[in-house]
Amino acid sequence: MSSIAAAIVGFAGGMVGGLLGVGGGVLFVPALVIFMDETQVRAEATSLLAIVPVAIVAVWRQQGYGNVRVRDGLMIGVLSPLGAGIGVVTANAIPQRALELTFAALALLIAAQLVIRAIRHPREPSPDYSD
Amino acid sequence: MSSRTLKLAVIATAAGAFSGLLGVGGGSVIVPLLIVWLGYGAREATGTSMLAIVLIATVAVIFQAAYGNVDPPNAALVGIPALGGVVVGTALQQRLPERYISLMFAALLVAIAVKLILS
């Protein structure tokens, strides 16, 4: 039964991922912890493997809808491991709690900006194509 | 380096750092920053984020597999139904006004912030 529950949450994770442009880990990880008794570390690693094909299918669909800016996406993808390296160094220098609270504050700040934009610009402004 | 390229580099660094530090996926950083900083429409931000995630998750899973942390049968258990889910989710997204996508994303960010504060 718990396998069925995990599969259902997996479907929901894919749907949220497709709607919001995230991998789906936000639901895969808790599904694996709660229904499949994975530890947090294993669940996060296993979730990453599930995310790869989900993201590939999302790109294929979104490409068809004309929503993928290939150059920008590739640049972010290629440069982000650098950020992960900086993250590891930072994690060893700054207390975890301080990082969590800083990121929480940033997330709330960005959320507020998204809400303000959505209210002020019911139609999205045209993207910044300048190079 | 143009300011636009610099912004992309900062977004990439933030996405990598965020996921490396806190186990939050890169997409939750990439999508809102593309919208707020580069003036992307919400749909374009999500599609472009997914392309970055393909690369980010592939690199990360190779490292995690080397540590023996990956469980392929369980990845298939959630990942295969998710393939259907993502097709439905992206199709649904095309029918939603972009501001609703932004507002749902804001709700996701608030949930992440609450989780970080409570952890």
Describe this structure in words.
The complex is a heterodimer of chains A (131) and B (119). By secondary structure, chain A is mainly α. Helices cover 80% and strands 0% of the residues of chain A. The longest helix of chain A is centred in the middle third of the chain and has 25 residues, at 40-64. Chain A is globular and about 40 Å long. With 119 residues, chain B is mainly α. Chain B has one domain (3-118). Helix content of chain B is 85%, strand content 0%. Chain B is built from 5 helices and no strands. Chain B has helices at residues 3-22, 27-38, 42-66, 72-94, 98-118.
Short description:
The complex is a heterodimer of chains A (131) and B (119). Chain A has 131 residues and is an all-alpha fold.
Oligomeric state of shown chains: heterodimer
Low-confidence stretches of chain A: none
Share of helical residues of chain A? over 70%
Number of helices of chain B: 5
Average pLDDT rating of chain A:
88
Counting helices, strands and paired strands, the structural category of chain B is: mainly alpha
**What kind of sheet is the major sheet of chain A?**
none
N- and C-termini, Cα separation of chain B: 39 Å
